[in-house]
Structure formats: structure tokens, C-alpha cells
Amino acid sequence: MDNINATILKTTIEAIPILTKENFSSWRSRITALFKLGGLKDNMLNGEPAPEEDNNMILCAIILSKLSTNTQNKIFTSENKDNAQLI
């Protein structure tokens, strides 16, 4: 994801809504666009290969920032909190 233009990355992230019960379809489309932009769509959707550590940390942070507190509490566990693919 380091090779992505910072302005494009920022705009793409800002376009991702906070995930709620009502907007999953929109959220999924936009988070998938982020994965595609970073060249990680197949990795994330297929579960392999695992993204490089730097990309994994970035994706975990972005995904976390785009979940409501209620959703975070339901999704994040000690097993998946550091793995973007499991989240």
C-alpha cells in the first residue's frame, strides 16, 4: 500500500462509511475498493496469502476506524485483533 498516492488513499479511506447494520453493502463495496487499490483484494477476500506485516497493520487500523463501537465489540477478539484477514 506504500505505492499508493497519498491523496488517493486518503480520499478512498474517507469515502468508507462507518459500518452499521444498515449500510453493510455500501461499506463492503468501499472497503473492497480500498483492498483493490492496494493490490490486496484477492488476498483479503480469499484469505491467502497473508498481507505483508506493514500492510496488515495499516489495514487493521483502517478497518478498526471504519467500525462502530458496537460492531467493534462484536467483531474484535484476542485471536483476530492483529489480523486484517480474520477481521
UniProtKB/TrEMBL annotation:
Protein name from the UniProt record: Retrotransposon Copia-like N-terminal domain-containing protein
Organism: Puccinia sorghi
Organism phylogeny: Eukaryota, Fungi, Dikarya, Basidiomycota, Pucciniomycotina
